Amino acid sequence: MHQLYSNLVTRYEKAVSFQDRVVEHERRCGHILPESEILLEVLIENLAEARRALDRETHSQH
User: Fold this and answer.
1) What CA–CA distance (Å, rounded) separates 19 from 28?
2) Which pLDDT band holds residue 62 (cuts at 50, 70, 90)?
3) Cα separation of 51 and 45, whole Å?
4) Nearest to residue 44, comparing CAs of 33, 52, 25, 5?
5) Please, how many CA atoms are within 13 Å of residue 55, restricted to the half-sphere of its CB?
6) Please, where are the H alpha helices in the chain?
7) Residues contacting 50, CB < 8 A, separation 6+
8) Residues of the chain above pLDDT 70, percent
């Protein structure tokens, strides 16, 4: 399970990074799309939850 959560965290980190760049590019170009910002917020929330799950799994092994 630890590896699964670790992989999930890594993938969410990559998705957040990518989406953050998309939002920043849209802002620079003056094309702010609410959907892009909402997606970024959702990805950040999901990353936080995945990190909490990884922490729980890590602490339950000790």
Assistant:
1) 14
2) low
3) 10
4) 52
5) 6
6) 2-29, 34-60
7) 5, 8, 9, 12
8) 97
* Percent of the chain with pLDDT strictly greater than 90: 89
Residues listed for the chain: 62
Chain segment 11-34, per-residue pLDDT in tens: 999 999 999 999 999 999 999 899
**Cα dist. 25→29, 52, 61 in Å?**
6, 30, 42
Question: Dihedral sign, CA of 45, 46, 52, 55?
Answer: negative
Q: How far apart are CA 9 and CA 46, in angstroms?
A: 9
